[in-house]
Amino acid sequence: MDVTTARERLTDMLSELDRSIGVLQGDPASIRDRSAADAGADLTDTDRAQAMLAVATTHRRAVLDALKRLDEGAYGECVDCCRPVPEGRLEARPEAARCVQCQGKRERRR
Length: 110
Fold this sequence. Notes:
- This protein has 110 residues and is an all-alpha fold.
- Helices cover 68% and strands 0% of the residues.
- It contains four helices and no strands.
- The chain has helices at 3-24, 36-72, 87-92, 100-109.
- The relative contact order is 0.15.
- Mean pLDDT is 88; it is low at 29-33.
């Protein structure tokens, strides 16, 4: 993927993530007289929103890191082994920081 296309896709991803994070961080619904079931549903919704916010924030960080690698001329190079990240991987995940082998090793360590 050429640098211009990568930057455009990453910038679009960042804008979308910022919008999503803004929505997820919105003011909680005011609590009125509610039944215990309603309170339980609100808690579940809050937990779900917090989980989605955590994922979006992590993804946003990955996009910002990819933009930084673009600026430094290191985009498309694995941050662990310095070999090229496969083109197909960058097409699917423009924010990818690692080649498939290094990403697999990292996931197995978790």
